[in-house]
Write a structure and sequence with these properties.
The protein has helices at residues 10-30, 32-35, 37-44, 49-54, 60-63, 65-74, 86-106, 115-140, 148-176, 179-197, 219-239, 243-252, 255-271, 275-304, 306-320, 324-330, 334-362, 366-394, 396-402, 410-418. It is globular and about 55 Å long. The chain has 419 residues and is mainly alpha-helical. The chain contains 20 helices and no strands. The longest helix has 30 residues, at 275-304.
Amino acid sequence: MRVFEKSGDAGARVKFYLQKCLVGFSYGLSFPLTLVTLDYWLKDVGVSNSVIGLFTLLHWPFSLKFLWGIFVEHYDVPHLSKIFSRNRSWLVISHLFLMAGVLGMANSSPESGLTALIFWASLVALADGCRDVALYPYQISKISAERLGYVAGVVGLGHRIGAISIKVITLQTAHFFSWKAAYLTAAAMIFLLLIPVLFMEDPVTGGGDDSGKDGAFIWSSMRGALRSSLVIPLKTMLREVDGGRRLAVIILYKGADFMMQKMSRSFCLAVGFSKLEIANVVQLFGSVSVIIGGILGGYFVRRLGLIRSMMALGLIHMFSFLSYLLLLSRGNDLAILHVVILLEGLSGGGVTAVFLAFLYDICKTGGQYALLWAFHEFGGMLFMAASGIMADHLGWGAYFCLTPLIFLPNLPLLRRLGR
């Protein structure tokens, strides 16, 4: 882990945290287009919960971003890398493909068929994964041990601001105009985001090499890149004490959270809330709650330590899911919806912050971070894909009762890591 050197320059510190916040904002601005607003769109045109859950599997190109990380870490983009640095050139390319995919989604029609929408959503997921890998070195660069919680909170803050922006704006645009206009607006926002991203300070990293500067994709070079970026980092972690338990926590820790987030959107529409109400309460008010929760999560890490914070906040978040039973019994009640979203948002923000701190504590390079994050998201993709089938077959009441239990296997794993 690279260490951020202490300095009396307050301006440098502000710049450091603003860059971390911008990285988080970039993450949050694009992923909801295939995992959140797309769910609302599909539910709005009458697609079943089971199909909506299975649509999560379209996110597989994003989950395989550790493979795209090999190219980002070891190879320049021909011609473009002569103008920008390697990371910046990949950021430009990925943003362009990301915009193309979003524009394609905007011109697709789920009512007439899902084939075109599936293709363009897959392209968005692929470009989003490539862009994320190019941003990882900026995220983990210069983080000292005592700043783990604070950086996690700042990245989470940026992530939530980005997510608030894209979800609220697209939902409100869809409510007043159309889903096509909503996704055209999203494409414009992604284009504007590229401008500040290109002016970020280059990261200090420990991964990558210069073998690809000539752009020659020779098999021997690829094999070496694969070994240094994926095989060696994974073997190193698994050989460490409790390495297997850490990997299990990475996959399982947010499983219940993934499932609840996936189906809560369909549930709110099924209960009778409008897109505008969901935009204002679930997305705007909920995201503000998550931001506050993320700040509290960083404070928990500072006061209780990492593992104890993960256990405590995970249990609190698990019990917050049961509040949906109250909304189920009361129906379309905005006051109850505010309470439910507040409880889930505060605890969920804390859970995300401590989980990010857990990853920062493990990772040494951007490639290793991409690999471990891929395990995390692969698990999340499977959890979300199963969520719609469970909701359709069990009913909402049983779903809200059983989903929190998915968190329980984390407790013995974390207890062992705490020792």
